[in-house]
User: What shape does this take?
Amino acid sequence: MQPFALNYARPAAQSEVTAPYAYDTGLQLNVLSDGRIAAHDHALLREFGTTTSTAGSKTHFDD
Assistant: This one.
């Protein structure tokens, strides 16, 4: 028996937009190239709407 979700699951679409921030494993936050925390940049948040990273969903089974 195949689970219902597998009939409709699709691979995640690759984003064509490159985010101007990267995940810092030491801080466990997204940071800008100059080292500032991305969530503190209000212009960035207005443009992108979020600074969410996929790191949590790859490391925690309960996300």
Q: What stands out?
A: The first strand starts at residue 21 and ends at 24. The mean pLDDT is 76. Strands lie at 21-24, 29-32. The two ends are 26 Å apart (CA to CA).
